[in-house]
Predict the 3D structure of the following.
Amino acid sequence: MGPALGFSAKPDVQDTLVHWQRWMRSERNVSPHTLSAYVNDVAEFLRFLTEYRGGSPPSMNDLAGMKAGEFRAWLSRLAMDGLVGASRARKLAAVRNLFRWMDRDGRLHNPAIATLNTPKVLRPVPRPLTEIDTDRFLDEAEQDREEPWIGKRDRALFTLLYGCGLRISEALGLARKDAPLGESLRVTGKGRKERMIPVLPAVTEAVQAYLDTCPFTLAPDGPLFVGVRGGRLNAGIAQHQMQKLRGLMGLPDSATPHALRHSFATHLLADGGDLRAIQDLLGHASLSTTQRYTDVESEQLMNVYRSAHPRARKS
């Protein structure tokens, strides 16, 4: 059934939320962590509406008739409760997800939510995405597309950047015959240097889903990722797609395709990955370059560096 909502709701809303969660799990294939976060955010939103309307839980008709001012009152309450812009933006993204699904499923149409501005996120220093933001970003990448195959293409591309730590040029330079459908991927990076990268099942599944829906016949030596006319996908298009998604989710301007490569390194190192192994996976000639690709506590980084560097081990 999915995560419990933890509050009372009108029967028609309860039924809708059950089907929405089922859709998120089966068709969007979101991670349990992402699903739980979305459900909790929606539950908080509906609890606010219950209080805002004098203690009566909202019905589907109430949700359909909501005005922009009611949505703004909810966002204002979040701000009064001390939530920063990034947190408010994530909660708004979850509620938007529900309303988009209800609209596509023919359950209700509410144009007011589309008029809301995403809360601004001010982060002066570029940073990799958090693990939670990365999960939600990859889930959102596949949604809200007039052409479903384009959403699957974008998810496959971004999952590849994050799951294998590729540069955008490396991913877009792959040929169809090089599609990462096995356990490893051979990549030619800067300076024509080749490296082997293990491929996660999540990457394989995302790429296969894109290939299954791509309307073009991809020649073995032709590009793996193609645009709407069948030619090689341009990096500018991928960057524009990510720009739209980060705006929708309230992510900072530093959330670029290259930030997914940074996130790959950061999350590996934070989870105990070996610094030299990460260096090899990224294709860096220098260990100091790999350090700049990570965003972990300096003390932890130095501990990992001391254990990895041969000179440090001799001291």
User: Anything to note?
Assistant: The CA atoms of residues 163 and 203 lie 6 Å apart. The two ends are 56 Å apart (CA to CA).
